[in-house]
Amino acid sequence: MSAGGLVLGDDGGTKRAAGTGAGGPIKLVAMADLRPERIDQSYTALHDMLGEWIDVPKERRFLGFDAYKHAIDCLKPGDVALLTTHCGFRAPHLEYAVEKGVHVFMEKDFAADPGGVKRIIKAGEAAEKKNLKIGAGLMCRHSSARQALIEKIRDGAMGEVQLIRAYRMDPGYTMGPFPRGENELLWQLAPGRPFQFMWSSGGIFIELMIHQIDECFWIKDSWPVAAHGVGGRIAGSTDCSQNLDSYSIEYTFADGAKALVTGRYIPNCYNDFGTYIHGTKCAAKFSGNIHAPNSWLYKDQNITQSNLAWRAPRETVNPWQAEWDVLLGAIRQDRPHNEARRAALSNLGAIMGRAAVHTGKTITWDEAMASNFQFCPNAGELTASSPAPVQADAQGRYPAPIPGQTVEV
Predict the structure, then answer these.
(1) Is 151 within a domain?
(2) What Rg value do the Cα atoms of the chain yield, rounded?
(3) Is 109 in the same domain as 160?
(4) Distances (CA, A) of 113 to 110, 150, 183, 348
(5) For residue 225, how many other CB atoms are within 10 A of its CB?
(6) CA dist., res. 374 & res. 18, Å (int)
């Protein structure tokens, strides 16, 4: 088995794509990127780390917006395309991989908008008809510690789950003004910038919080029926990106239970990174800092180390490796494995929450599902000479959402 990687952004999937795992050796055989320096850096780092498992001579290192097609064209039936760009490009890349008949690992996020979600779902359905396997980069679903706590919850150890709280708060990610005279599209797609724009990544909130939002839906074993929220920027902010620096969302589920999701990106403030659950019997911690598998039950509602009642068994395989092992195992043993729909719908839930904050409105699940809104419908046709999908004003700043005026669903 070989594995083709598309290295245009988040390279987490690529690092897992070579070596041995799930029953046999694998190799990285093709790479794609927009910039020669980036592809050279990635190749050197991977080759230094993994040696013979990186079999990517210069003729299989492709550059440009259509480079993903050339990389996927190097693959054979049974091979895997790794889609690791920012999510503005995920749908056209997935569609092409499915058309070519190869399996896929796609890193999170999966879509920037509801229209992109629909394309992911449709491509996933096409893959299923071809018996192609799709793994998705929501690695927490493959955490044995979280799976053990989910089993406890389903068995009634917490009673009825009434409230989930998820936080990711850190010092922040501001961006300076666009410097006139540069290629604006390529500038927006330079390392570290795509998450500053809605069209390319869905924005920083979804980029960071999709894992914990997915945890909320997993814990409740359902999708939310509605979301509303608030957000904004600190006074005097010089951030030129499209992001807000605080997001607070209340999701409501069909049984009336709530999930409160908070993202804040401001320096010199209290920080937290964790997911907490409150049931009618007791509380629990589902995950901890940097997605640590801190899956614990407490004796009551007091979330303190001295009040622990149960700890999940220690993980022997980290979730990033486990998700890859599951995918390769399904391919080699021809087991059903297609995470496209679930991943896309979790992404839709994140979009729904972001849209509630950006628009200042309550967004329902039905509205989100019905929406065809897209920030950049032609992402798959962009070239280096294309105008940027969003353009800076005279001061080099990009339009930020205005509640009451912005439309995203």
Answers:
(1) yes
(2) 21
(3) no
(4) 9, 29, 25, 8
(5) 14
(6) 35
Same domain flag for 301 and 253 = yes
Domain count of the fold of the chain:
2
Q: Which domain holds residue 255?
A: 143-317+348-381
pLDDT at 23: 63
Instruction: Summarize pLDDT for 286-298 with one digit per residue, the tens.
Output: 999 999 999 999 9
Are 219 and 252 in a shared domain?
yes
Question: What is the structure's pLDDT at 189?
Answer: 97
Task: Report which DSSP code applies to 221.
Answer: T
Per the domain annotation, does 10 fall within a domain? yes
For residues 263 and 208, is the Cβ–Cβ distance under 8 A?
yes
* pTM beyond 0.85: yes
Q: Tell me, what CATH number does 97's domain have?
A: 3.40.50.720
For 101, how many CA atoms within 13 A lie in the half-sphere containing its CB?
4
Tell me, yes or no, whether 50 lies in a domain. Answer: yes
181 and 223 co-located in one domain: yes
395 within a domain of the structure (yes/no): no
One domain for residues 174 and 286: yes
In this prediction, residue 19 carries a pLDDT of 53
Q: Which two tokens stand for residue 175?
A: 């961006």
pLDDT in the model for residue 24: 73
Question: Residue 209 is part of a domain; what is its CATH number?
Answer: 3.30.360.10
Q: Is pLDDT of 74 > 50?
A: yes
pLDDT of residue 380: 94
**One domain, residues 275 and 206:** yes
Shared domain for 136 and 27, answered yes or no, is yes
The whole-angstrom separation of Cα 361 and Cα 281 is 34
Phi and psi for 124 in degrees, rounded to 5? -65, -40
Q: What DSSP letter does each residue of 195-211 carry, written as one string?
A: GGSHHHHS-HHHHHHHH
Nearest residue to 29 via CA among 3, 59, 62: 3
Question: Which residue is it, tokens 């496209």?
Answer: 340
Task: Confirm if 233 and 403 have CB atoms less than 8 A apart.
Answer: no
- State whether 292 and 266 are in the same domain: yes
For residue 35, pLDDT beyond 50: yes
* pLDDT digits 0-9 by tens, 321-352: 999 999 999 999 999 999 999 999 999 999 99
Instruction: Give the Cα separation of 328 and 311 in Å (integer).
Output: 30
pLDDT at 22 (0 to 100) = 59
